[in-house]
Amino acid sequence: MSRAFGVFSAPVATAGARARCVACARRRGAVAAASATRNGPETVRVAVPDGYGGLEDVFSSLTSNRIIFLGSRIDEDVAADTCARLLALEAEGPDEEIKVYVNCTAGTQYCVTAILDTMEYVSCPISTVALGCVAGPPVMLVAAGDKGKRYGMQSSRIILSQPLGGLAGTSIEVKIQAKELNRNAKAQVAFIARYTGQDPDELEAMMARDTYMGVDQAIAFGLLDHAL
């Protein structure tokens, strides 16, 4: 900037500078387009008032009200975000309830159990709500809520099923992977048996095939406590 009579004035952009700006904008557009091609259209976040005259992301607003919403496949990123929110909410109010809403049909068992361990680690009371469809390992999250505080929306569906695994590699590697997949299946049965009070052997035999439940069936089975 140049100083003239105590007033700052911005220099006039040259033709070369303007051309460089246009080129940068085009490159940013190309990168965004490539990202959209790889990952699909960018998610549009919904903004809500933050109570202080500004706006915040709707999921951040839910967290500020001690609500965590799981609505996508549970991978490492989702697990890390959820565990961080649980720990932050415990630090903020160790005796205040946390509500976890689950509408999820897939997830890596290791990532789901990371959330489970954190739910059991924090001192806060935790209520869970199933909505839409909850299937596979995420079912454990709904069942892991405090007894008497596990809810299901009236139209939600629960699907008990074995964890899936894509076996590949040499015969020895496939044998090792199959052993770990079997361990994961037994661990899932053990978790659900603990949360529902069902006999592990009967539960393992039942989960050899997909089992579909409505809310009333899930309550009778011990996965949920109340219908909303």
Automatic annotation (TrEMBL):
CDD domains found in the cross-reference section: S14_ClpP_2
Gene3D superfamilies the record matches: 2-enoyl-CoA Hydratase, Chain A, domain 1 (3.90.226.10)
One cellular component (GO) term of this entry: plastid
One Gene Ontology biological process: protein quality control for misfolded or incompletely synthesized proteins
Similarity comment: family membership: Belongs to the peptidase S14 family.
Protein name: ATP-dependent Clp protease proteolytic subunit
Pfam families named among the record's database cross-references: CLP_protease
Any one GO molecular-function label of the UniProt entry: serine-type endopeptidase activity
Native organism: Ostreococcus mediterraneus
InterPro entries referenced in this protein's UniProt entry, alphabetically: ClpP (IPR001907), ClpP/crotonase-like_dom_sf (IPR029045), ClpP/TepA (IPR023562)
